[in-house]
Amino acid sequence: MISVEGLKVEFGVKPLFADASFVINDRDRIALVGKNGAGKSTLLKILCRQQKPTAGNVSVPADCRIGYLPQVMILQDETTVRQEAQKAFADITRMKERLEKMNQELAERTDYESEGYLALIEKYTTEHDRYLMLGAENYEAEIERTLMGLGFLRTDFDRPTSEFSGGWRMRIELAKILLQKPDVLLLDEPTNHLDIESIQWLEQFLAQSSSAVVLVSHDRAFINNVSNRTLEISCGQIIDYKVKYNEYVVLRRERREQQLRAYENQQKEVADMKDFIERFRYKATKAVQVQQKIRQLEKIVPIEIDEVDNSAMHLKFPPCLRSGDYPVICDEVRKDYGAHTVFDHVTLTIKRGEKVAFVGKNGEGKSTLVKCIMGEIPFTGELKIGHNIQIGYFAQNQAQLLDESLTVFQTIDNVAKGDIRLRINDILGAFMFGGEESDKKVKVLSGGERSRLAMIRLLLEPVNLLILDEPTNHLDMPSKDVLKEAIKAFDGTAIIVSHDREFLDGLVTKVYEFGGGKVREHLGGIYDFLQAKKISELSELGKTNGSTNRLYDQYKPSVQPVQAVCTDSTKQVYSTETISKALSYAEHKERQKRKNRAEKAVKESEAKIEKMEARLKELDDLLMVPENASDMVLVTEYTQTKQALDEEVERWEKLSEELELIQNQ
Questions:
Q1: Strands, E, within 200-320: which ranges?
Q2: Percent of the chain whose pLDDT exceeds 70
């Protein structure tokens, strides 16, 4: 689909990467990895032709549509959420306008037998068929499904985009790109502004999508669940691993061990040569051998080793004062903004040394409760902060409070105390401020770099209650591992607001779920919480009883009581209430039959999709073999299977919608 040959990108003396060649195929799910600054975002910009490489070629077919989500983009504020999402269907909207114009012309003209009229009918028919083929009649439903999958409510659709935060507006942009159904999706950190539910929805969407995907993300669980191939930018090269992320990690470790052994052997060989040269440099009888060794030494190409994984480094918080047994106690806490209640009846107790997570959809009150704990906003109810508590708080705007006149090193040097001052350079290196980066002024740092610097600064302050609001948004995986290990070893108490499952896994022992104006406590880790949440969702069969009662109310007759008489010798009288209950039961039974039929149809469709996807993968592997590339039988079968798969996926979507409607009745 997209072919990259001999790609080279230079910023300064040393190139980001050189001589890079690879191909992006249909249905590839590529995780693009590498340390910050390696060139991941640059490569995405080159693939979508927003930036030109120093050398090399990127070949994109003329009919290939590319959707690109950058980390930072200019957002529009003049429309509603729905209107902004509708821009994804601009082509369809223009087509609809053309059809309406042609239809109006057909209605007004009376020259029915003329060539012009017949040509207009033919043009209208062709355009209308194409309009229907594109699924134009269902695009409103697609918009609603995608927006709701990314966390929006129906009540949000007609709100101006200017009322939403930058994170929510980025979700709108992501929705527009997904709705366009491009052939290739280039996503640069799409999960930074998504909560756990939205990330899971995006995982499922990408798994079912027919688009190829190239993905940059620091969410380890997300990229592992999505990817089937990994491209790594390392040591100025792009290495292609034909495996998903977790398998790549194992292969990379083995590769690095091989590099280390080769490097050590080369160093030993170089040392032996230098020793020989030094020992016999001034011996006339060894002059020829010495010159040979010098020439050999000059020809040796140094073996480069992949960047060291800084996650092996351990960072410890400085010792802190012992706090009271209960750092935070909430009793019937409530917060209102005007007529809107964010949450009420919040009652919780956080014990000393606990690591807890605040999770839930954006806008459900996680950061609001943190601000209540910090004493930044008023509330009702009782909230006690324990004895001898020293709070360390990291929020997104924390980065804006840094002194812009200082360098990166000075910013950390000013807060570091004791022995940790001797390790400032190591700490900065672990968070991607190694070497010359530590001499940069804060004022020239990007938003992400400032956030990382603010995080390091916080880690060095002696506190016993740590509150972190989305701390991993701008950290790469090695830096996240450093932070995670530091929090695990922290002997104080930690409250972490995060959507990053991998980061929370093994770190927290209690989860507080925010939703519907309530805060619910779940004991256990983040995956225990997710598993329990799925079970609770499946157990919502109590809704069936509610729907039965609604059916009874709906079909309860309003006529006067009547009598129904049995035909046997014993006459039995049935009341109107008994008859209406029978009607209600029959209605419920019929609904259950329709539900069972719908579920069966969905399962059968899923089985067909799975079978066709498996066959496509087999054909893909066969066509990758050079001698099969021109085998028209295989090519034809591949084309037909792919078309049938697309049709079956559309059928599955309709069946799923019908099932959802039945379940919600």
A1: 212-216, 229-234, 237-241
A2: 82
DSSP one-letter string for 426-475: HHHHHTT--GGGGGSBGGGS-HHHHHHHHHHHHHTS--SEEEEESTTTT-
E strands present in 338-474: 340-350, 355-360, 380-385, 391-394, 465-469
* Token reading at 283: 């011996």
Strands of 351-432, DSSP E: 355-360, 380-385, 391-394
Distance of CA 586 to the CA centre of its chain: 45
Burial class, 372, CB count within 10 angstroms (exposed 0-12 / middle 13-18 / buried 19+)? buried
CA dihedral for 112, 113, 114, 115, sign (positive or negative): positive
Residue 73 carries which side chain, given as an amino acid letter?
A: M
Q: Are 83 and 159 in contact (CB under 8 A)?
A: no
Encoded amino acid at 248, one letter = Y
- 533 and 540 Cβ atoms separated by less than 8 Å: no
Q: Is 496 helix (H, G, I), strand (E, B) or coil?
A: strand
Amino acid, single-letter form, for residue 254:
E
Cα 308 from Cα 631, distance rounded (Å): 46
Gyration radius (Cα) of the chain, Å = 32
First to last CA, the chain: 44
Nearest residue to 187 via CA among 32, 4, 17: 32
What tokens appear for 575 in the block? 């009341």
pLDDT tens figures, 301-310: 777 666 554 4
Render pLDDT for 460-515 as a digit per residue (tens, 0 to 9).
777 899 999 888 776 667 777 878 888 888 889 999 998 888 889 899 999 999 98
CA distances from 130 to 86, 222, 367, 439 (A): 19, 36, 48, 59
Longest Cα–Cα distance in the chain? 134
- pLDDT at residue number 553: 33
Higher pLDDT: 32 or 283? It is 32
Say which amino acid occupies 295.
Answer: R
Starting at the edge strand found earlier in the chain, the sheet holding 2-10 runs 15-24, 2-10, 55-59
DSSP letter (8 states) at residue 441: B
How many Å apart are CA 145 and CA 182, to the nearest integer?
Answer: 18
Sign of the CA dihedral running 587, 591, 596, 597: positive
The letter for the amino acid at 460 is L
Residues 6+ apart with CB under 8 A from 371: 377
pTM: 0.53
Evaluated on CA atoms 147, 153, 156, 162, the torsion sign reads negative
Which residues is 469 bridged to in the sheet?
A: 497
